[in-house]
Amino acid sequence: MSNVLIIGAGGVGQVVAHKCAQLPEVFSEITLASRTEQKCRRIAAQIARPIRTAQLDADQVPRTIALIERVRPKVVINVALPYQDLHIMDACLATGVDYLDTANYEPLDKAKFEYKWQWAYQDRFRERGIMALLGSGFDPGVTNVYTAWLHKHHFDQIDTIDIIDANAGSHGQPFATNFNPEINIREITQRGRYWENGAWVETDPLSVHRTFDFPEGIGPMQIYLLYHEELESIVRHFPGIRRARFWMTFSENYLTHLRVLGNVGMTRIDPVRFQGQDIVPIQFLRALLPDPASLGPLTRGRTCIGVLAHGSKDGKQKVAFVYNICDHEACYREVQSQAISYTTGVPAAVGAEMMLTGKWRGKGVFNMEQLDPDPFMAAIGPRGLPWVLKRLDAPMD
Ligand code: NDP
After folding, report:
1. Nearest atom within ligand 1 for CA of residue 60
2. Class for domain 142-336, per CATH?
3. What pTM, to 2 d.p., does this model score?
4. For ligand 1, atom 31: residue with the closest CA
């Protein structure tokens, strides 16, 4: 029986609040805090169990400390934006409370996806006797656990992994992102990067692509190579992996909009002087684009996210793909959100469940693949994200 504090009342925060509320035997009391308290109240009104709400600017560490001292949670689930990660970790350190997030820290003025800032908290968390679980969404998150589980049960040696993320759904909008537009566009417009033979190989943004035939009737789609943060932790914790790549699907329409926005400077993250004040184009663009939370009732179709591994077992070559398929409309019926928020929010709640039930315990800062994958794999299906393991004939080229 534990008290939980969720910070961030966006698309993902909504799912986390619903999923924690579905498990009263683990999450006995829930407080949802965010910059705009009205959004917390709107989510609380969707849920039959009472949920407390609070206004919080999580960049103000003393205020977060004061809220934690008032609520006295066993864990803080951070589903605000990556910019808040270090501030919330500081507040957890000051109060001696466990921490969980779904995306690694990014400085506002640089789109950089690196764990170094959060890994630097390792000694302080260990000495304080508390645990930080980093990246407990789907990717990062479930994809890290899939890799650890394949490694533990299905391969003696994994040579290559390809993490593949498809949104085979449609929201009918000319251009919209499925999670926070600013974070999403910063990620996609970066140079691509993958791990090969002990070094990072860089590629021009979205320049490497393939066709991948997705299972269960989704069929062939174009996938584009991106850098994604879980690659950094996975190759660190599984040094035997020779090559690790991340792929995501995009429609031609999406890429054309993105190209035009980039060409005219609307995806810039540096301030531009406009009519006597500084504005950051990507933040202005975010204000114009549909709020991802508003896409819930509009989105149809499915997502498929998985890990394709190639290696050996008992002296024989083997290729396996473990994946989840999630239906946008089914998610909306359950928690009034589309599948991108759902596939992030469910693992955040399950990660917290693992910590609160003692299945995952430790002192210090952990990535998901460092913990035993079995209890998480057992829980994630019943909580809403069932997985399938499939043998394939050949690895990806
Ligand atoms: P949204 O933009 O929908 O929600 C973010 C929420 O955080 C908003 O309610 C916002 O408040 C709040 N917030 C922002 N700044 C602060 C602050 N300083 N103090 C308190 N609250 C704040 O984003 P999403 O829900 O789509 O994404 C949430 C997180 O999930 C992001 O970090 C994203 O990167 C991550 N994510 C991870 C994925 C994974 O698979 N691992 C996949 C998708 C997302 P306000 O409404 O007032 O702006």
Report:
1. 18
2. alpha beta
3. 0.96
4. 81
